[in-house]
Amino acid sequence: MTSRQRRRAGTGPGLGLGAGTTGIIIVALMAALAVVCALSVLFGSRAVTFDQVVYAFTSSADGTGGTDGIVSEVVRLRVPRTVLGILVGAALAVSGALMQGVMRNPLADPSILGLNSGAAFAVVCAIATIGLSTPAQYMIVALIGGAAAAILVWVLGSIGRTGATPLKFTLAGAVLGSALASLTSAIMLPRADVISTYRFWQVGGISGARFNLMAPVVPMLLIGFILAVFSARQLNMLALGDQMAAGLGVSVTRARAIAWAGAVLLSAGSTALAGPIGFVGLVVPHAARIIVGSDYRRIIGLCMLIGPLLLVASDVIGRVISRPGDVEVGIVTALIGAPVFIALARTGKMTEV
């Protein structure tokens, strides 16, 4: 096996860091995630001191009595918001890594491959026809739309004697995404009421987090994470090329199907919970590759740290710069992710997948 093949199979280093240095970076990322989670609980529409946060977690009050709303503010609003940020950030990052591995395309992510367009199209259709208006309704419809788009991309990418190939998947996702985006615009333009309702979901955010809304989707995300971990070794083999992977005993179609299923569960679930949030699934896997190399077992693990760190930090930034209002996290991730992605591309740091 050549050095190039070793890198593509996951044995090549990212920055050439030793195990000790990589461990220090992982510990630093964990510490940074803990810090931004604490900041997420501290900062909001009203000033809350550390002592008040401690009281909110230790008091048995329900936040409606003498606590002046502190318990309700912290526990009922900010904690679910932080938890949702962790879940969605990890799900989007891991989903992006899986899609890039399946497609062998460094630009693959849920938005580019049509999943977000499928969710958006379903939401717009439901708003226009049945008057969709509640977060729970958005979640169900977006989940169905994203999953349906993913299945359609798989079917279109598998047509033909050659079966499923990365190029066909990418083309199918791009074409389907463009078509659904056009149809979404065609439905919205004549309907001002649809545009008014849809625009709040379209931005992508976690400000409406509630544990009861998250609960139905969490099992699906857990299954997606399990499939991602299970697929990591197969993705390393697929990076060598279909023929080489088959020669090493990997069922190429089965490996792609499992990884794709995990990516769909994670991306559709996160889109259902928080709307279409861009750049997390695109940028985070590249950042992970720079640190740990091309081994998907390490990439997926690191994505579970960097994704939540980026999303929760973006949410905190959005709250700080516009207090007492909020800038939705989807806007902040775009403002952060776009320059980072351009910098990676210009400096040649977008490593092969």
From TrEMBL:
SUPFAM superfamilies xref list: ABC transporter involved in vitamin B12 uptake, BtuC
Stored InterPro entries: ABC_BtuC-like, ABC_transptr_permease_BtuC
UniProt KW Endoplasmic reticulum keyword: no
Membrane-spanning segments: 21-43, 82-99, 111-132, 138-157, 169-189, 209-232, 272-292, 299-321, 327-345
Annotated compartments: Cell membrane
Gene3D superfamilies recorded: ABC transporter involved in vitamin B12 uptake, BtuC
Key words, A-Z: Cell membrane, Membrane, Transmembrane, Transmembrane helix, Transport
Membrane topology: Multi-pass membrane protein
Pfam families hit by this protein: FecCD
Keyword Coiled coil in record: no
Chief location of this protein within or outside the cell: membrane
Stated family: Belongs to the binding-protein-dependent transport system permease family. FecCD subfamily.
Name the UniProt record assigns to this protein: Iron ABC transporter permease
Upper taxonomic lineage: Bacteria, Bacillati, Actinomycetota, Actinomycetes, Bifidobacteriales
